[in-house]
Amino acid sequence: MSLRAAVRVRLGAFELRATVDGAAGETIAVLGPNGAGKTTLLRALAGLVPLADGHVVLGSTVLEDATTDVHVPPERRPIGVVFQDYLLFPHLSALENVAFGPRCKGLAAADARARAREWLARTRIAERAAARPAELSGGQAQRVALARALAVTPELLLLDEPLAALDVGTRAEIRRDLHAVLRAFGGVCVLVTHEPLDALTLGHRLVVLEQGRIVQSGSAAEITARPRSRWVADLVGVNLLAGDAERGRVRLEGGGTLDTPDADAGPVFVVVHPRAVVLHRERPQGTARNVWPARIDFLDVGGARVRVRVAGTPSVVAEVTPAAVAELALGPGVAVWVAVKATEIAVYPR
After folding, report:
1. Domain identity same for 191 and 63
2. Residue where a domain terminates, one of 199, 231, 263
């Protein structure tokens, strides 16, 4: 079983253009900021919003093709969906909620309930089978919603922010259980989230969506090593700069230059880890080839490290210890010198 989808959707002034492919047993985590079009993509795969162009093919079955007017209704697609707010039937018990899908597929009532009990057990919520949604906690409701989606034996599983409504403690537990369920799932799963930990933990492959476009896709290691947008760079906690390289020097788009031995000619991205950024109160006399003046913009204290935003040409974020903050008397408006060794800079083509 595989998924091949290339979708274009128009919703007012917003346009989504995205291509998503997945193999059997693979979980694709779609990551991006609010308003990026993540839920719209999921709804397009489910058939809940029409395609202006493109197609959705699951295995050998065309679920939708805008050029040939093929459109399989959502209820006839072999998919399971877990919506962000779960959408459990309030008048039905957990057991009947899960049995509802199999019964709609033609399974006898007794067999549907047996399958529902099986999935409630597999999602570790069997003891609440008789409870109605209003009697369930957020974590319990999430488990029931997941069991309901899986009980129809879907070939494609769509999860829309499945952990967003949970508190921190419950989220960790559900994430662990969901990881186990997804690793045993034989179909394709597309999971939408804005939480990097959920994407990194649950996804085999990441797709980053911003403003209706895919800006990057690949493994977690590939994306964190070579971010291709400011949002991704902020997500993984690195400085991302863009410029043009020539003869070991990068002229940055926002002004300033950086020397690096890895700079090939042409448009490039430059990544500098905040821990590679060294701050001084006086101009340093060391071996760093990249030195420039700046001023402290703000400090963000977090545990044993302090992230310091420095405004200069270029502006970057440094990561230092609280002891260094005290020793250098760092604070907003303080003048500093920034130093970065050329060997600490990663460069790759745009």
Report:
1. yes
2. 231
